[in-house]
Amino acid sequence: MTTIPTEPVQPGKASLLYDPKIRGYVYQLALLAVVGFLVYSAASNAIENLRAQKIASGFGFWHNAAGFDVNQKLIPFSASGSTYGQAFWVGLLNTLLVASIGIVLATFLGFFVGVARLSSNWILAKIAMVYVEVIRNLPLLLQLFFWYNAVLKPLPNPRQSIALPAGILLNNRGLYLPDPQLEPGGSLIVLTFLLGIVAAITFRYWARKQQTATGKQYPVGWVALGLVVVLPFFVYLLMGRPITFIYPELAGFNLRGGIQIFPEFVALLIGLTTYTAGFIAEVVRAGILAVSKGQSEAAHALGLRPGPTLKLVVIPQAMRVIIPPLTSNYLNLTKNSSLAVAIGYPDLVQVFTGTVLNQTGQAVEVVAITMAVYLTISLVTSLFMNIYNKRMALVER
Amino acid sequence: MNRFVSAALAVAATAAFAGGAEAQTGLLAQVKSRGQLICGVGPGLAGFGIPDAQGNWSGLDVDLCRAISAAVFNDPAKVKFIPLSSKDRFTALQSGEVDLLSRNTTWTMSRDTSLGLNFAGVNYYDGQGFMVRKKLGIDSALKLAGASVCTQQGTTTELNLADFFRANKLKYEVVAFASADETIKAYESGRCDAFTTDASGLYAERLKLGVPTDHIVLPDIISKEPLGPVVRHGDDTWLDIVKWTHFAMLNAEELGVTKANLDEMLKSENPEIKRLLGTEGKFGEAVGLSNDWVVRIIKHVGNYGESFERNVGANSLLKIARGQNALWTKGGLQYAPPIR
Description:
The structure holds two protein chains of two kinds.
Chain A lengths: L19 H33 L31 H34 L4 H16 L2 H13 L9 E3 L3 E4 L2 E4 L1 E4 L3 H29 L5 H19 L4 E4 L2 E3 L2 E3 L2 E3 L1 H28 L2 H9 L4 H31 L11 H13 L2 H31 L4
Antiparallel strand pairs in A: 1-2, 2-3, 3-8, 4-5, 6-7
Helix pairs in contact in A: 2-3, 2-7, 2-10, 3-7, 4-7, 5-6, 7-9, 8-9, 9-11, 10-11
Chain B lengths: L1 H16 L9 H8 L2 E5 L8 E2 L5 E2 L1 H14 L5 E5 L5 H6 L5 E2 L7 H6 L2 E3 L4 E3 L1 E6 L14 E5 L3 H12 L5 E5 L2 H9 L5 E5 H8 L8 E3 L7 E3 L2 E3 L3 H19 L7 H4 L5 H6 L6 H4 L6 H8 L3 H8 L29
Parallel strand pairs in B: 1-4, 1-5, 9-10, 9-11
Antiparallel strand pairs in B: 2-3, 6-14, 7-13, 8-11, 8-12
Helix pairs in contact in B: 3-9, 3-13
């Protein structure tokens, strides 16, 4: 055999046409161009059609007077003087309110049910199983109707309100709480409360460090209770009780004064929480089962009781499996909150894509804005969950 | 690769330019070649547009669609009814999903001028009212201070409600729902003191309540609600057809032409009746229909008064008085320009 006398062939230099890397770029560019062209032509087609049909377009409607009312609002809004833009914020804040409270509650309930399902207590495990199976297999919309009617039906009309302790009243228009009013000196109580929270967190951090260093345990719970509850209460007494309450009272058809929590909000919150918790419970169960049995056996061998075993050994390891699907359940809860429209809760979809779209007729703009909002909420949620996931993942040994 | 890209471009181009073709050929030609009229109606409002157990639609608004179908095809059944909520109706019409909207839609300036739509007439003069429980013991909407009011969202109703309470300096709480069904259910469960919508709607929705006689419609009418059919902007022939179908039914009532006496009337020597029924002149052909278009409408659907009595008036469950919807000759507002 003779050696081949030609110069060594360098891969990629031979011909640009056959270089897999270059080819890859060309294909990607071509795809990008096609997608770009499709988007451009769809957009220009829509604009042209709107113009041909003389449908007003643009975002000028944002500053026009709205002229309708919304019952639950976290910022001032009224038919006289508020704009469609403000209606957008009212709806967005209502969505964020129900979604954020719902996420917190669903996480607690979901973890509880998920752990309960693996419990050695037969009754508890079966109840958790029935809960998960029932909740997961019924459409959320039906559940919302059920909760809305279940919340409303047993409640009396305002004239026969149920009087609860501390001046709280309950009727089919909502739950009425006394409205606290700060008098001079009252802000000091709030300040003490906030400082108490900061101090409690700092103490917990310090106690943790002490425990790792010396093994000594501190009563973190009691100290936190003292700092957050007892201390502000002493300040309250010391300052001469500078908080007064406006109590709800019957006036005409309804109650006047106080803070009103609407039945639509309660029904939506219960519905979203219980529904999402059913899925979170399964995620938690899967996560715990993914932790090798040897881990808890080893913990037991060290003398740890089942409670601390779960808390200190199993769940931290399970979290790595739990977090990614947990994130998508959070996103689902947020998106599902748009079913609010069915039971009259004024969320973003009800106020903005419902009323504002219909009053202005600007379907393209309103739907585009709403889609952008949900996309943003979703991306921000998964961003935070990804950061959290990274921090949990670092614990890996 | 080149083949792939050019194929993709071709697909993209077809997809992008497939819209836009409708404006060239008229809607009447399209409806004729399709062999069917597509009519957007309410999702179920007794008397105006509601399907029965067999899926047959009936009502005052439905009759207008049937009349157009009769005029075009000589058959009142060649209509496909698409139920539309008040939220979706304009988008459905704008996007060409339906040929016309005939569903309790209030004619307002902003809708007529900025939505790319044209209102073709008023087939029912209405006004917004309130329904309350009898046991509340009130006789006027002005006594609703502090009340909770249930309403359907995304309608002029919501705006009028705000205007009324603002103008009278009364406090109230609004609870808005996506559909009429959910609204009336919430009212029945006691969530609200009052239910508000157009007065005709109040009578229709009251039939859905457990004990309709426990509820009364307050006499106050707080707005003008001229309800009528709507078409897309830019097809004047189609607008004429919808408009003149309504006017033909009104003129027929005024001239005493009914389903029952149609054959006799065809022999009438009255020039107005002759022009109406096409035995004189070529008025039908002017809008692209046959000259006996009104004969077809009356034969299959009847005149406006007949449709009114059958669907919402004395012969119906709603039993609404003619009131403002009487002909101008009887002190009402229904007035059709003459056919000549």
